[in-house]
Model the fold of this input.
Amino acid sequence: MTATTPHPHFMTLALRLAAKGRGKTSPNPMVGALVVKNGRIVGRGYHQGPGQPHAEILALKQAGLRAKGATLYVTLEPCCHLLKRTPPCVPAVVQSGVRQVVVAMTDPNPMVKGRGIAALRRVGITVTTGIAQEEAEQLNRAYLHWVTIGRPYVILKAGMTLDGKVATAKGESRWITGPRARQEAHRFRSQVDAVVVGVGTVLKDNPTLTARLSDRPLTLASRQPLRVVLDSRLRTPSTAMVCAKQDRAKTLIVTTSRAPRSRRRPFEQAGVEVLSLSTKNGRVSLPALMTMLGKRGIASALIEGGSTVNATALREKLVNHVLLYLAPTLMGGQDAKAMIGGRSPKRLDQALPLRHVTVRRIGKDLVVEGDL
Done:
């Protein structure tokens, strides 16, 4: 039987399925799959989390005998290696009897990287690639960055006034943006693997850094990011909110050799991990931090630190995406805290240009996003 012409509509539906796994699959990618026969969907599936069946397996299982001679649409190349918790998908695809596989994008994981597609073609299955590839890459941008670079995909998030101020001269910052913007920020927290702040933010605001579904009553999201505090001298109080609820949300305090070892004991008793890393300009090295997080399987990180952490992350070229909430207010004053600390560039052409910029409204606030 000859292969049918792939229909982009089915891949769009598969991508929507894949997106249901947002915030649940890391460090695995989000993947959706459809089995289509005679123009009808006979099987659906999406990856729901590490250790759970892959999307192809679920879709083929639902299709059953109807998979024979059908077309499998999948948003990422089927896997073929054994170094994971679940069996490889390629043998199951072959055994199902599908005659055609349509793949949005190849998997850059060195253990896959075209091998799955090649294995399918060797047994006579027609494989088409590149259908809705750009959309598939955007969906899994964090996974792609982590698996190729080895560091988490970093989003820098800040709430500020229209003139770029994140706090008054006395440090007051709650709340610059409105409730809907804050609610959305909590949703973003629930979708990343780690939230990173500096100790200054902990001392000034005493945040919980949890992802909350609501404040009244307090309801935490089912998935919580690792809370990471940069604290070169271990000034974080052991009673800080970020050290609480370790049964629901883990905390990692990253310090340096400058911190007295005796200061670690209260944190360790509370179940908070304290880790020493190398320094850069007397502070925790952010590149070393991101490399360490990447090795731990942290594929995405949200920086919610103050102006100093923001400036360092940008200077070190660690930020991949910027997420800015702008309140329709003007603060003014050179002594107010700006979003980015440190020294300004000497020339205008040294300013960092954002790409793929979008602007939208949320409540009374504006949201500006862009890539670096």
